[in-house]
Amino acid sequence: MPAAFSLIVSQGRVADRTDGALVGARRVGDALSTLLRTPATTIGTPSPSRTDDWSTALPEANDTLHGLRDAVAGAIDAGTVPLLATNTCAASLGTLPTVAERHPDAVVLWIDAHGDFNTPDTTDSGYLGGMVLAAACGLWDSGHGAGIDPTQVIVVGGRDIDPAEGDLLAGAGVRVLAPADSTLERVLELIDGRPVWIHVDWDVLEPGYIPAAYRVGEGMLPHQIAAIFAAIFAALPAGSVRGIELAEFEAGDADVPEHVSVELILETFLPLLRAV
């Protein structure tokens, strides 16, 4: 199989507050490498999780974020599609500015229970992962760049959004679709034939399918996400998927056997394999 993808696996701590997401990224990366017969580029070295403020987590993640940025840029320059297995959504602080630079016409399809649109002034938790989209859209300076046009961002499955964060999302022009509104027709209408960069945080799903650190009820189901991906394949021209990030699989959750989650991630991803 030609190497249509450049597989990139994040293994450096980027604000991880649990130990399972780094393990999950590695397990997903291994499974994708086998499926695609493509070697992975590993960025960063694991370190123990801890609960800290964004102001501490951000500088500690500096090397990993720069490494992810360079890996994505290299993949695009090589004419391949970046495919990332990442630990936390905060890893996208290193990827989205490159997307803005290289693919300014792309829609960012942010498939996530959360808006990740807080800033240092609005965050209650101090969690860096809850601030990544706002940084990429230029609402605060992460030190890693910005450039994403918020009117080209679609949050799919969003349902756990702070009031102040909701005001920022609305004011910036980000489209937020609750799970009930995340239909194939509505997603394709908002994409409007444009290329897409796809980010998936598995907490978009109803708990019990693919474990994530933050469980939010009344979520979407795996087949619904796969159907959106299949619809993108059917509706958009070949080559419209400019990159894919799969984040926040919490390995080691006792409620769901790990191999079941990995297989479900692969099955959900498969329509995108055809799209690329």
TrEMBL record:
The keyword Hydrolase applies. Pfam families: Arginase. It comes from the Bacteria. Keywords: Hydrolase, Manganese, Metal-binding. PROSITE patterns: ARGINASE_2 (PS51409). InterPro entries: Ureohydrolase, Ureohydrolase_dom_sf. Belongs to the arginase family. This is Arginase family protein.
